[in-house]
Amino acid sequence: MQYGICNLSIVPLRNEPTDVSELVSQVLYGEFFKILEQRKNWSKIRLAFDSYEGWVDNKQYFEITEEQYNNLNKETPKLSLDLVEFIEDSNSQLHPILLGSTLNGLSILNHKFDGQSINTKNAKDNLLKTAFMYLNAPYLWGGKTSFGIDCSGFTQMVYKLNGYNLLRDASQQATQGEALSFIEESEPGDLAFFDNSEGIITHVGIIMKDNYIIHAHGKVRIDRLDHSGIYNIDKKTHTHKLRVIKKVI
To answer: Are 100 and 157 in contact (CB under 8 A)?
Structure first.
């Protein structure tokens, strides 16, 4: 088994080993992984944080040893807290990194970082404060950053920045936590899940006070939430059908 760490700000994680394949997620700076299969130009990887799999370009990661991987895996993630920060390499060159980048591998990559970071669990009421940092970020299928993010990438990153683990996709996140019977039982920071006409969960958002929800739909936005689902304030219509509310924390 081989192992790697992301040494760039954002690396696309693709469904197939080609640049034109679907973007299924992104690998942020400092995220580390197992290499499941290695080809001439591409590697299939499994991320340590959420076990998500996909293909990355061999030019876009740095190989590490099994010992380094295991040591990183034992540590509490230390994450960058600014929308954009910089690391400095051994040649004194600056490289941008984004909100939620992992800093535990700085010594392995011989990089320096002087910005704000966090490596502890926050109270549940801090979730919305973090969520607002992504407000108006454009929607991007597979995205995990303030420059492009999808619905489950948004919820995963908000929880991750507060010390909690969510899986990558909305359908996977819906398997976590305790289901609530009514919206009235929820509190800010709980997750609301929505399904399509076939009953498949395809969307997720974070519940706010007073029957509002923050979610990624076109952009990270705030809409109304009722027993039917999400009521889009701009379109004045329901856009998502409520399936279940989950309390993860």
So the answer is: yes
